[in-house]
TrEMBL record:
Skewed-composition ranges (Basic and acidic residues): 1-16
Family, per entry: Belongs to the MCTP family.
Keywords: Calcium, Membrane, Metal-binding, Repeat, Transmembrane, Transmembrane helix
Localization per Swiss-Prot or TrEMBL: Membrane
Gene Ontology cellular-component terms listed: membrane
InterPro entries: C2_dom, C2_domain_sf, C2B_MCTP_PRT_plant, C2C_MCTP_PRT_plant, C2D_MCTP_PRT_plant, MCTP_C, QUIRKY-like
Protein name, UniProt field: C2 domain-containing protein
Membrane topology field: Multi-pass membrane protein
One family name in Pfam for this protein: C2
Organism whose genome encodes this protein: Capsella rubella
Annotated stretches, region: Disordered: 1-24
GO molecular function terms listed in the Swiss-Prot or TrEMBL record: metal ion binding
C-alpha cells in the first residue's frame, strides 16, 4: 500500500480577510469578526391587504413569488384569504446576483395556471444597507402594479435591504443557494440550528432488603434478586445469600437519567424457581421527579416501598396489595459528571448540579469559514454531488451550520460562542453530507455521510490569539485512510481571568465525587454507553433532528473496540514516551565507556561536587529542567494539533486489519477469516503473556530474597545485609556514594564483558514458574 504524501495531510496556516475590515466608517463588526463577510439581499414579505378576488367565488388563494434573475422563492399560500400574513424572509447571495431589479409578485394559486394579482419592483441600486447592531429595517406598504406599471387594487408590506450573515434574519431565511430544495421538512433540514444536550443525572439505587415476601412454592428456599428497569436500561442484583422471605442485598445499581424525567424506575423482586424460569414476587414503580438529589457524599434517607402483585381472576388482571415491602435508598447524584464522551477528549467536566459549578474562566469563539476540495458523496442526475454541513460540540451546546447545496467548496462563514469552564477540554467539529434532501426520506433509512472531523484542545491555544488554519478532513475507510477535503476554521480562546485559569491546573479533572465514591471501570463504560444513547435519542427528536449517526460520530461511540491498527499505534506511543529514557541510558553507557573522555571527566567532577554538597542535588535538577523548558520555548508549536495519520498508523495499516476494524460486533465475516484473525490474536496474546510472565518472574525473585525458598541464596543475602549495615553505620554516606559512583563510571580497562556478580546472583534466585502447569 503506497504511503500518501504527508504534506497533503498537514495543517496549513491561512490569512483570511476576517470581519470584512472597516464597516460604516470606523465601526468594526463585533459579533462576526472571526468569519469572512458575506453580503446578502434580504426580502421580508410581511403581509398583504385588500387583494381582489380572481376566481368565480370572488376570493383568492394568495402567495408571493420573489424573483431575482434566475432565482425564485415563494411563500406558502392561503386558501380564500384577501388579507394574508406570511412574515417570511428570503436571502439572495450578492455574489450570485445577475439582475438589477427585484420583483415581488402576488399570485393567486389555481389548478391550471396561477393568476397574477400584482407586483412590486425594486431597483437594487436604491436598496439600503443595514449593519447590526442597527435596528431592523421597518417594512412598508407598497401599492401593487400590473405588468404595465399601472396601479391595481391591493397592497403588499415588504422590507428590502442589503446585509451580512450577522443579520438576525439570516438563520430563518430561505436561501437562494438552496432554491432546488422544496418542501417544509427539507427546508428545515438545511437551516442552521443550536441544540442543547439533555441534562444528565446518575441515578443510584441502593437495594438494601425486602420483607415478608410470599413465594409461590413455600416448600423451598427462595432464590431472590431485584431487577430494575428504566427506559432501555435494565440491571439486576445478585441472588440474595440469605435464602429467606426477608432477603438482604445492600447492593448499588447505577442508571443514567435525563431531564425532563419521562419514564419511571420499575423495580421487580423475582424468585428464580428454575434455571430459565423466574417468578415475580412484587413490583413497584417510582417516578424520578420527587427523588432526593444529593450533591456530596452524605447519605440520603432510606425508605420502605410497598410491593404490588398482579393476579389473574376470571381471565382479568387484578392488583392485590399485601404486606411485602422493599427497603431502598434512591437518589439522583448531582456531584458527578455524567460522562457521555471519551475522557481523553471531553468538552465538559462539570458536575450535574448547577449549584456546584464554578464561574467560567473564558470564552471560546469558533468561526466556521469554508471547506475546499470535498469529495462527491452521492450521485444525483448521473453526477457526483455533496450537500455539506458542519456540526460542532463543546459542553452541552451543539451547533449545526446551514447545508450548502451541491458544492465541493461550501462557504458557511458562521460564528459561534461557548463559555469555557476548564481549559483542559476539547472542541470537536465534524463535517457531514446531508442525505435527507431531494426526497431521500422516502428511500428508507438514508444516513448522513461523514466527511471528517477536527478536534482542538483549548489548553494548546494561546489566549486572545486568532488561529486561522485549514485542517485536513481525514476518514478511515476499509480500503485505507482518505482525505475528503479541508475545512477552514478560525478559533479564539479568550481568558477572563488568568489567575483563575492557572488555579484550574491544580484542581482535580473530574468533580470530587469521582474520587470520594469512585465508580468502577465497568460501571463507567456501561453508564457512558447509556448516556450516549440518551443524548443521541433526544437530539434525534429535535426539529430539525441531529441524527443518530452524526451524534455517535461526534461522541466517538465504538472507539473502545479492538483494533490492530490502534494497538500498534499505542505500542509505538509508549515506545515514543520511553525513547527519552532509552536515550538517557545510552548516553550514560557512553559516559561509562569513556567514548568522549572530556565529557566523562566533567561528569566525574559534577558527581563529586553533588556528593560533597548533596543539598545542591534538587536545585540542580530543577534548574536543568528550567533551562530545558526555556530552550524548547524557541521551538514551541505555533499551531493547534490535528489528526496525524502516521501517529495513528492509518497510512500503513494492512487491508485485513482495517477490514477487522470495520467488522460488526458480533462478527459478520466468514468462518475462515475469523479463524485466521483468532489465530493472529492468539499469537499476539502469547507474546504479551510471555512479557507479563517475565515481569512476574522478576518480582517473585525479589520476594524470594527473604522467603528462604532457596535457603543458601537467602542466607547469603541476609549475611550481606548484616555486613552492609555495619559498614554503612561506620562509613559516612558521602564516601559510600563516591565509591559506588567511581565504580560505576570506571574506565573500560577495568570492566569485564561478563555480567556482574549481583546480577548473576539475582538471576539464580527461584521464581514460581516451576509451579506453573
Amino acid at each position: 500500500m503506497q504511503r500518501p504524501p504527508p504534506e497533503d495531510f498537514s495543517l496549513k496556516e491561512t490569512r483570511p480577510h476576517l470581519g470584512g475590515g472597516k464597516i460604516s466608517g470606523d465601526k468594526l463588526t463585533s459579533t462576526y469578526d472571526l468569519v469572512e463577510q458575506m453580503q446578502y439581499l434580504y426580502v421580508r414579505v410581511v403581509k398583504a391587504k385588500e387583494l381582489p378576488g380572481k376566481d368565480l367565488t370572488g376570493s383568492c388563494d394568495p402567495y408571493v413569488e420573489v424573483k431575482l434573475g434566475n432565482y425564485k422563492g415563494t411563500t406558502r399560500h392561503f386558501e380564500k384569504k384577501s388579507n394574508p400574513e406570511w412574515n417570511q424572509v428570503f436571502a439572495f447571495s450578492k455574489d450570485r446576483i445577475q439582475a438589477s431589479f427585484l420583483e415581488a409578485t402576488v399570485k393567486d394559486k389555481d389548478v391550471v395556471k396561477d393568476d397574477m394579482i400584482g407586483r412590486v419592483v425594486f431597483d437594487l441600486n436604491e436598496v439600503p444597507k443595514r449593519v447590526p447592531p442597527d435596528s431592523p429595517l421597518a417594512p412598508q406598504w407598497y401599492r401593487l402594479e400590473d405588468r404595465k406599471s399601472d396601479k391595481v387594487r391591493g397592497e403588499l408590506m415588504l422590507a428590502v435591504w442589503f446585509g451580512t450573515q450577522a443579520d438576525e434574519a439570516f438563520p430563518e431565511a430561505w436561501h437562494s443557494d438552496a432554491a432546488t430544495v422544496s418542501g417544509t421538512d427539507a427546508l428545515a433540514n438545511i437551516r442552521s440550528k443550536v441544540y442543547l444536550s439533555p441534562k444528565l443525572w446518575y441515578l443510584r439505587v441502593n437495594v438494601i432488603e425486602a420483607q415478608d415476601l410470599i413465594p409461590g412454592d413455600k416448600g423451598r428456599y427462595p432464590e431472590v434478586y431485584v431487577k430494575a428497569i428504566m427506559g432501555n436500561q435494565a440491571l439486576r442484583t445478585r441472588v440474595s445469600q440469605s435464602r429467606t422471605i426477608n432477603p438482604m442485598w445492600n447492593e448499588d445499581l447505577m442508571f443514567v437519567a435525563a431531564e425532563p424525567f419521562e419514564e419511571p424506575l420499575i423495580l421487580s423482586v423475582e424468585d428464580r424457581v428454575a434455571p430459565n424460569k423466574d417468578e415475580v414476587l412484587g413490583r413497584c414503580g417510582i417516578p424520578l421527579q420527587h427523588l432526593d438529589r444529593r450533591f456530596d457524599h452524605r447519605p440520603v434517607n432510606s425508605r420502605w416501598y410497598n410491593l404490588e402483585k398482579h393476579i389473574m381472576v376470571d381471565g382479568e388482571k387484578k392488583e392485590t396489595k399485601f404486606a411485602s415491602r422493599i427497603h431502598m435508598r434512591i437518589c439522583l447524584e448531582g456531584g458527578y459528571h455524567v460522562l457521555d464522551e471519551s475522557t481523553h477528549y471531553s468538552s465538559d467536566l462539570r458536575p450535574t448540579a448547577k449549584q456546584l459549578w464554578k464561574p467560567n474562566i473564558g470564552v471560546l469563539e469558533l468561526g466556521i469559514l469554508n471547506a475546499t476540495g470535498l469529495m462527491p458523496m452521492k450521485t444525483k442526475d448521473g453526477r457526483g454531488t455533496t450537500d455539506a454541513y458542519c456540526v460542532a460540540k463543546y459542553g452541552q451546546k451543539w451547533i449545526r451550520t446551514r447545508t450548502i447545496i451541491d458544492s465541493f467548496t461550501p462557504r458557511w462563514n458562521e460564528q459561534y460562542t461557548w463559555e469555557v469552564f476548564d481549559p483542559c477540554t476539547v472542541v470537536t467539529v465534524g463535517v457531514f453530507d446531508n442525505c435527507h434532501l431531494h426526497g431521500a426520506e422516502k428511500n428508507g433509512g438514508a444516513k448522513d455521510s461523514r466527511i471528517g472531523k477536527v478536534r482542538i484542545r483549548l489548553s494548546t491555544l494561546e489566549t486572545d490569539r486568532v488561529y486561522t488554519h485549514s485542517y485536513p478532513l481525514l476518514v478511515l475507510h476499509p480500503n485505507g485512510v482518505k482525505k475528503m477535503g479541508e475545512i477552514h476554521l478560525a478559533v479564539r480562546f479568550t481568558c477572563s481571568s488568568l489567575l483563575n485559569m492557572m488555579y484550574m491546573y491544580s484542581l482535580p479533572l473530574l468533580p470530587k465525587m469521582h474520587y470520594i465514591h469512585p465508580l468502577t471501570v465497568s460501571q463507567l463504560d456501561n453508564l457512558r454507553h447509556q448516556a450516549t444513547q440518551i443524548v443521541s435519542m433526544r437530539l434525534t427528536r429535535a426539529e430539525p433532528p441531529l441524527r443518530k449517526e452524526v451524534v455517535e460520530y461526534m461522541l466517538d461511540v465504538g472507539s473502545h473496540m479492538w483494533s490492530m491498527r490502534r494497538s500498534k499505534a499505542n505500542f509505538f506511543r509508549i515506545m515514543g514516551v520511553l525513547s527519552g529514557l532509552i536515550a538517557v541510558g545510552k548516553w550514560f553507557e557512553q559516559i561509562c565507556n569513556w567514548k568522549n573522555p572530556i565529557t566523562t571527566v566533567l561528569i566525574h567532577l559534577l558527581f563529586i561536587i553533588l556528593v560533597l554538597y548533596p543539598e545542591l542535588i534538587l536545585p540542580t535538577i530543577f534548574l536543568y529542567l528550567f533551562l530545558i523548558g526555556v530552550w524548547y520555548y524557541r521551538w514551541r508549536p505555533r499551531h493547534p494539533p490535528h489528526m496525524d495519520t502516521r501517529l495513528s498508523h492509518a497510512d500503513s495499516a494492512h487491508p485485513d486489519e482495517l477490514d477487522e476494524e470495520f467488522d460488526t460486533f458480533p462478527t459478520s465475516r466468514p468462518s475462515d477469516i475469523v479463524r485466521m484473525r483468532y489465530d493472529r490474536l492468539r499469537s499476539i496474546a502469547g507474546r504479551i503473556q510471555t512479557v507479563v510472565g517475565d515481569l512476574a518472574t522478576q518480582g517473585e525473585r525479589l520476594q524470594s530474597l527473604l522467603s528462604w525458598r532457596d535457603p543458601r541464596a537467602t542466607a547469603l543475602f541476609v549475611l550481606f545485609c548484616l555486613i552492609a549495615a555495619i559498614i554503612l553505620y561506620v562509613t559516612p554516606f558521602q564516601v559510600v556514594a563516591l565509591l559506588i559512583g567511581i565504580y560505576v563510571l570506571r574506565h573500560p580497562r577495568f570492566r569485564y564483558r561478563l555480567p556482574s556478580p549481583p546480577l548473576n546472583f539475582f538471576r539464580r534466585l527461584p521464581a514460581r514458574t516451576d509451579c506453573m502447569l
